[in-house]
Amino acid sequence: MANFDPPTIKPDAAPEFKDSAGCAKWLQTLPLVNVGPSHDRILGQLEELNACNIAPAERLKIMELLREPVTFVQKELSKKFSNRPAPLAKLEREIFHKVNALWDALSNGYQHCLNAAAGGASGVGAGLLCQRALWCTGQKLVACYGAYQDVGEREWKMLHGVYVFAEERDVADDDVAHPVHKDGKTNCIETYAQVLLLHLASPSKLTPRQIELISLWIESWTRKISIGPVASTPGDGPAPLVVDLAGAAGASRRAAEGEKIRTLDVHEVGESLRKRVGLLKKGETPAALGLGEDVTASLAQSLLVMLHRRWCEDGQSRAYPRRGASGTAQICSGMAAVQQFVTGGTFRMPGAFRELSQVQHEQIATLGRVVTRQDERVPAQNFVAETWQIKDESASGVRLQRIDPAATSRLVLGQLLGIRLADAKAFLLCTVRWLSVSQQFELCIGVQILPGVPLGVAVRGAFASSEPYAPALMLPAVAALKAPETLVLPSGWFKPERAIEVYTDNARQVRLASVVDRGADFERVTFEAV
Question: What's the rounded Cα separation, in Å, for the pair 263 and 241?
Answer without folding.
Answer: 6
